[in-house]
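User: Predict the full complex structure for these chains.
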Amino acid sequence: MSESVAVPPAGALVRARDLAKTFDVSPPWLARVLGRAPRAVLTAVDGVSFDIPPGRTFSLVGESGCGKSTVARLVVRLYEPTRGRVEFDGIDLATLGSRAAMAPVRRRIQMIFQDPYASLNPRWRVADIVAEPIRTHRLLEGDAAIARRVGELLEQVRLSPVDGEKFPHEFSGGQRQRISIARALASNPDFLVCDEPTSALDVSVQAQILNLMRDLQREMGLTYLFISHDLAVVYHISDTVGVMYLGRLVEWAAARSLFHRPQHPYTRMLLDAIPDLEMTGKARQAVAGEVPSPIHPPSGCHFHPRCPLANARCRAEAPRPRPREGGEVACHAVEEGRLPERGGRATVAAEFQAS
Amino acid sequence: MDPAAYGNRPLLVVRDLRIEFPTRRATLVAVDGVSFHIDEGEVLGVVGESGAGKSLTGAAIIGLLEPPGRIAAGSVTLAGRRIDNLPYEEMRRIRGSQIGMVFQDPLTSLNPLYTVGRQLIETLQTHLDLSQQAARARAIELLGEVGIPSPQLRVDQYPHEFSGGMRQRVVIALALCVNPRLIIADEPTTALDVSIQAQIITLLKRLCREHGAAVMLITHDMGVIAETADRVAVMYAGRIAEVGRVDQVIKRARHPYTDGLMGSIPKVGTDADRLTQIEGSMPRLTEIPAGCAFHPRCPKVFERCTHERPDLASVDGAQVACWLYAGAPAEAIDRV
Amino acid sequence: MSSIVVAPNEIVLPLGKRVRDSLRRFFAGDLFHSFRRSPVTVAAFIVTVLLFAVALLASWIAPHDTANLSTLILSDARLPPWGVTDAVGTSGASKFVLGTDDQGRDMLSAMMFGLQISLAVGFASVILAAVFGTALGLFSGYVGGPIDSLIMRIADVQLTFPAILIALMIDGIAAGVLPRGLHDEVKVYVLVLAIAASQWVHFARTVRGSTLVEKGKEYVQAARVIGVHPVRIMLRHVLPNVMGPVLVIGTLSLAIAVLTEATLSFLGVGVPVTRPSLGTLIRIGQQYLFSGEWWMTIFPSVVLVVLVLAVNLLGDWLRDALNPKLR
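Assistant: Here is the predicted structure of the three-chain assembly.
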């Protein structure tokens, strides 16, 4: 994919190039032989490239099936990519074969998960959960030192050190996410991958967690990869935002630029679908169609069945990323200059109804 | 039809509803003295965070409260008739014909073993006197109304052959098929993608207007409320904090909790460095504070709040349970 | 973990305090509460503990040392229980409270020692099956892929064989392979192995299923991201969360193991006759059942039934009590 990026390459802490991941979801061998069913391959991620500068927040946003969670897991090496590479601080993760070689990198990359109830081992006490990275990487010696550090970490996420003796089920969802964050910070990481960390939380608790994450980023110079389906949250917390659709990155740009001047038709439709909390009275124009199955994606540009600006080229050829203000966009209509001016929320939907 | 056209007659009146859960340690009060009403044809949003008791209230109204939960006090009246103390058979009949339900998870709302058409036809024939053909024709018509393409083909398909958004449309068709007067929708769009949410919300709003059904829309998503509801009730710790017209409550929230809630929602276009943060979290059922349940977290708390529970007081047409607005007793809510 | 003092708050408790805290939580918890409220379960528990105690202390509390063959007097054979007169007119005596068998063994003592053997074989085979089956299930479920398929296919194939048959096969192979003298000495061990071989599959399958569920949970993924060694993840993270069903299966498996051993002994291929188990006693007594000397069979049968019933009831309660626990 394109090598021209808006951010200077030297500044990137994390770099993904042409990342792709496919899963074999074929029916079992016997069923295939007897039922003559074909092999089925699910392309979760299809050639995604981005850079994340240090100390910044890069968000990936999209609907279900777009592959953003898979990208998160590829970056932390929970999955091996089918194609492409991930570089962390200049090191290609694929070159780190053994567990021992991977260990120093593992210390510097941590992850926070979506489900606060499943991300903490219900049988462990909180202090042991938070201390696990410290023990795994042998960062401190002696129980006393570890205990003191665990207390510090718990205080850093606005919990009390005595909470270390309790079990996860004694805490609320928001508090459990704080424990997850404390665990993630225990190894003094540089880079945090956050997979929908606030999606399962109430709005007021979400605000606490987002504020906390922002404070921690400033205090510790952390870099975030933030995955979410909630555009408003992403707007609030991100420096750069990437929009994914069916495994591809259709557009990415600086947050303000993307939200105020979106170019890709899918981005525009997503923004139009956000509920109107300001109650400006404009009726929400519904987006047509649904996300197709990732096992049988549409040909060419994946978005063409739902796009009001689709032409024959869109059906045949997948668009390549081209530069835009503050980032890149992959769309033939933009390239060919067919993109209309965005004059308000109802514009794109009106075009759709006209087509 | 516009609610005003009905002459603002209350269809559903809930008065002092109290839901308790007896456990071996103590009796937990999950909903404590909740009162509100829904007029014919209007959409009332019931909003609150998890644990506020909004789903339980909805379940109690339909009579689907899971034991050991039970209605300990109060009354629920539908079109002038009490429904909270009816025997099972009577309630079952009302549930299908007068109250329709739309739940959160379309996967479990539909029986996976029967075709979509069969479930529709069965419901139609149970409550209306229709022949098999007439019911089938009506079912196809309904599927078309909710925006399912090629309804005459899809009527014989099974739920797993539909996508999430399509399934939710079928659930809405099921809820509306016998023309109920009230629809209770509990988080109808939470499990759906953002773009599908928009479609379903628009559909629900339009159909309920066309069929003249009132809606009790239970959700935690303020955005959905802003787009759909006429009035909104904000619940906190099993009590109602504030009730009023939706533009009033959202734009000029009076209760400190509602105000904090609105401030903590991130909005595209608003460049705030920090979101408004309400310290602490909603109290557990075993630890509900005395007086006003919100007082430990309230930025405007004063002495009275810590030991006296505020009643709903009228302020400019809205009703707020807060001592900041004491002095004006609530309007009488039964105009029957 | 050694004792730690961290001023001003104790963040990590020392071991002794942790154990006391865990015990306090257990007795205050729902599991114990459900136990106390079920009279059947409490009764079953008491009966089980009683029988275990008898088996454990048999050497000290049995009135006669029936293991020592030299103490048996043949003229004492086939005496009825105390207070009962049999068809021939012989009366029972207080010396042999429950009567004697055809060798002159006191029934009560023989049953105590028989219980000891039955439970020893039962426990040993269950523990062996549980350790082996759990380890294999844990490994299979965590590793996945073709290894998992292979192990599960082996397990499936073995399940098609009845447990008794497997035990008989292993016993028969041992009898054929080992020289006679050696075979008699190791007979008990072979028996334990045979019964364990028929039981491990249940543990393996259940643990594998639970492992698959836990493997997908985020706390396991978090441990992988941290860089924890896979073996440590399996043992410290997954194993504690899959132990619940193991306990239930273990309890029920004990009952099955005892019955299997009794059946094998009844068939004559179980424990050696010199140290009869309950099953052996039943077999011996069975020959005399229809001549009116019922005590030799009935008493051991009753003990066996009561033991198996009590253990089964405990296992049933445990399964129900652990089931809805999602906290």
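The first helix of chain B runs from residue 54 to 62.
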